[in-house]
Design a protein that fits this description.
Helix content is 40%, strand content 15%. It is of the alpha/beta class. The strands form three sheets. It has a five-stranded parallel sheet. Strands 1-5-6 form a three-stranded parallel sheet. A three-stranded antiparallel sheet has the order 2-3-4.
Length: 336
Amino acid sequence: MTHPKKIDMHAHHFPLLSKEEGAALDRDNGLWLRVDAGGDTGQIMTGEKPFRPVYKVLWDAHARLAEMDEQGVDIQISCATPIMFRYSDAARAAADWAERMNDHALQFASADPARLKVLAQVPLQDLDLACAEASRAKARGHVGVQIGNHLGDLDMDSAHLVDFLTHCANDGIPVLVHPWDMMGGPNRMKKWMLPWLVAMPAETQLSILSLILSGAFERIPKSLKLCFAHGGGAFAFLLGRVDNAWKHRDIVRQDCPNPPSSYVDRFSVDSAVFDPDSLELLTKVMGADRVMLGSDYPFPLGEPRIGSLIAGSNFLSAQDKARMLAGNAADFFNLT
């Protein structure tokens, strides 16, 4: 049996939604895709406002497969662009939206189900509806779920989100946590994509530490398959600081019975760190079995040549490269 050599587990899609379909949920801020003349480029729109320029691989599965061939990607796992979460909408409307978007995702993957895999989105604002949609999506063929790293002011350690993670653990549903709705607001980070460069790594570190320091990992089944995007944000670089604080300040360790560094076996991260030294540190902290190839394709902040950072790293053994490029993701998402 020939095993995949490259599985990209962090990519995004956006369905070819008409303005009318997007407005069905929200008349003023409905999400839709405006495709430019020629059909190769477009804009994700919120109502009448452009949100992000995109090109056809975001919605055209056959164009996606052609680029995967060109990049040597055997399997790609794609998830919703986070603006699609709609966590602030009424729960029932968000549940209907999530079901429709998940069905769109499966239609996208139907172009080649062996190579295109998708993660579901859920109406996270309602626990029962979120759990139901996660399980429905698994039964329909999604290989996991993607959630945002917080729900308003609720971080990952909230009972609401811990209960959702527990449901996923019990139902065998892998979870990718993606930062979104970044801290800091528009007044402090007006330019230069600072929300993506500063707040996004901080949001991810906050999510991981909220689970560790709150003791939430003591309550969540160890069977949970949990991954954080973008290399876990700032977590690996600042873990020494956190361990030091845990040792010397009782207010840090009051809910956390073990050193923070002892919890790195409870989650995985993707490889989207873009620098060999950063990847080396990440691998030393997490272990090669806890890092999976993730490109953030097809957005400009993603890895242009998918897998090149791992493949070109001289500190990794051939075995570690094979695991990080494909083997870890195959095990995590039950693709073997």
